[in-house]
Amino acid sequence: RNKSLSSNVSQLYYNGFIPFCVYTTYFTLPVLMKKIMDLWLYFYISCIYFLPLIALMRSSNKSSNFLLRRLLFPFEYLIQRRLEKTTNYNRGSIRAVHIFIWFFSIFSLMFATAPLIFFHEPLENHTTLLLFITYYCMLAPFCFWFQPRNLKQ
Q: What is the tens place of the pLDDT at every residue in 82-97?
């Protein structure tokens, strides 16, 4: 048979391009999107944990006071040190700011979930990372609400 060029192009379009788009949309894109969103959540975790931990390790303060709490929650500890300098070691104002930080950290969870919601990524695909971020953000400020008096002021 003698087919025209337009029918060959349309046949190629229907046999090649549309199945490719369907395959990309329903099979490869969700897997790629899940990996990209996981990378976003790992970046978020590194910003609230690993970067402050590196800053804490590079600091000149090498005391072992509250070492476990300092290693588990380095961002909160850096906030604690800044508050101590700012408020001249006033325990009441430091505690009030840590209580306020608890509300702010819960509010900041929107930054972790905003890309997931924007790209219509199901939150169920990232349950482990989201729960880790949520409980970390809830527990970190709470650990600094009640603390013993530091004798080495």
A: 988 998 888 888 888 8
